[in-house]
Design brief:
Elements: H1 3-25, E1 27-28, H2 31-41, H3 43-57, H4 61-64, E2 69-86, E3 92-114, H5 118-184, H6 190-224, E4 233-234, H7 247-257, H8 259-279, E5 285-298, E6 306-319, H9 327-394, H10 399-434
Parallel strand pairs: 1-4
Antiparallel strand pairs: 2-3, 3-5, 5-6
């Protein structure tokens, strides 16, 4: 092996060792860990979880109006008054700053036992609202998990491109050194050295730009995971793509598992139960009351200076709406319009999901084809680069041809990583629409 060839291999090996050393010095963040951290910390997921818990807490018979209300009362008032009283026989009785008091306390119960079945519709509506909260939480989780997976594989893609740019820099550095050596012994013109230096500077600039993009994407992933945005880490090397997805299977999964579609169905049911509560206004309302009370009145002057009383009270009350200015009819009409709007929204969501699924599936198939094509292109470009560099070392090829082979390899590598990333993003999008996104 000649000196120059050994020098080239040495530079490439050193570049790989430097990259490997950087990766080993950082935390290796797996996709599973990234998703787990996001599920534990992401603010949108926490907020949606709180909303779901509120909806769960609201499901109670008391909140629906089925249970009685028991109220305890206490009232104690005291007075200091100057009193004067003239009796029938003309005698006058006077008291200066006489004390008086009035004490009342008791427990009362009121219970609406029938309200036109409104309470039953309300209770069922609360249950549906709980399910709606679960569907909204599921949608938030799917969206944020999709964000984590997409951003994670974006980093994998950028990491692969970093290697390509780093290889380009190493090759350009080798060209600069070789051109300088050839110039010193008179086998190359000064122009060859300058061209090699320009190419080296260009490749270094591209590498720096790619490193900046890589760091900023790390910050974005840390933000999604709701941890310190400056936390440094590395990601896995490869992208695994599920190429077995079928449109028929995905369509069936959308109908059964998509949380947006579930939410639309639940909203229609909630609107129907709201209309049922409105219609209850045409029926009578029946309630019962009972309670126990105690009272004590004390006066400084009068025929009775002390009186007390205690006992039970009970009763029944009933009411029915006979006429309220046609408001009952207006409310029922509005409730029916609400049902119609909920049905239209359901149809709109269903149509939108079907359109998204069909479009995303076509993109997915195209990207799978591009992955196979670009993989072959990269392999050919690598072989061409190896052959070109050997010819350049022997001096049987121009620097222009070397640069073309170098750029072809870098571009082929970038296109291949882009194709892999886009195919993975297409897979993630399809599974997110189907509601089956998992690891």
């Amino acid at each position: 092996m000649t000196y120059h060839k050994s020098r080239l291999l040495g530079l490439l090996l050193l570049s790989l060792l430097i990259c490997t050393g950087k990766v080993q010095a950082q935390e290796l963040l797996t996709l599973e860990d990234a998703v787990r951290i996001a599920l534990e910390r992401n603010y949108d997921i926490k907020l949606a979880s709180n909303d779901e818990r509120i909806a769960e807490n609201n499901v109670s018979r008391g909140n629906a109006g089925m249970l009685p209300a028991v109220t305890g009362t206490l009232n104690n008032t005291n007075t200091l008054q100057n009193n004067s009283q003239t009796q029938q026989n003309g005698d006058v009785r006077e008291v200066s700053w006489g004390r008086g008091s009035n004490l009342n306390y008791g427990v009362g119960l009121t219970w609406t036992v029938f309200d036109g079945f409104r309470m039953f519709a309300r209770y069922e509506q609360l249950q549906e609202l709980e399910k709606l909260g679960e569907a909204n939480l599921q949608q938030t989780v799917l969206t944020r998990v999709g964000d984590v997976i997409s951003t994670y594989y974006e980093l994998v893609q950028q990491q692969q491109q970093l290697r390509a740019y780093d290889t380009a820099v190493s090759l350009s550095r080798f060209r600069v050194e070789l051109a300088q050596n050839r110039f010193q012994i008179g086998k190359a013109a000064r122009l060859e050295v300058l061209n090699a230096q320009v190419d080296f500077n260009t490749d270094t600039t591209n590498l720096l730009r790619q490193q900046e993009l890589y760091r900023n994407t790390k910050i974005r992933l840390n933000e999604i995971m709701a941890r310190d945005v400056n936390t440094n880490f590395s990601v896995a090397d490869g992208i695994t793509i599920d190429d077995q997805l079928t449109l028929g299977q995905l369509s069936a999964q959308v109908e059964q598992q998509n949380p947006a579609l579930k939410a639309a169905v639940l909203n229609r049911r909630i609107a129907e139960l709201e209309a049922k509560q409105v219609r209850a206004g045409r029926l009578p309302t029946l309630g019962v009351t009972t309670g126990y009370s105690f009272s004590r009145n004390r006066a400084a002057l009068g025929f009775s200076t002390l009186s007390t009383g205690n006992g039970l009270t009970y009763g029944v009350n009933a009411s029915i709406n006979l006429f309220n200015g046609f408001n009952q009819r207006r409310l029922e009409q509005n409730a029916n319009i609400g049902i119609n709007s909920a049905q239209l929204q359901l149809e709109q969501v269903n149509q939108s999901l079907n359109a998204q699924l069909a479009s995303a599936y076509q993109t997915y198939l195209t990207n799978l084809t591009l992955v196979r094509l670009e993989e072959n292109n990269q392999r050919i470009a690598r072989q061409n680069l190896d052959i070109t560099m050997e010819k350049y070392r022997l001096g049987s090829i121009t620097t222009m041809e070397v640069r073309d082979a170098q750029l072809n390899y870098v571009n082929a590598t970038v296109r291949y990583s882009n194709a892999q990333y886009l195919a993975k993003i297409g897979e993630v999008a399809l599974k997110e629409i189907a509601g089956t996104l998992n690891l």
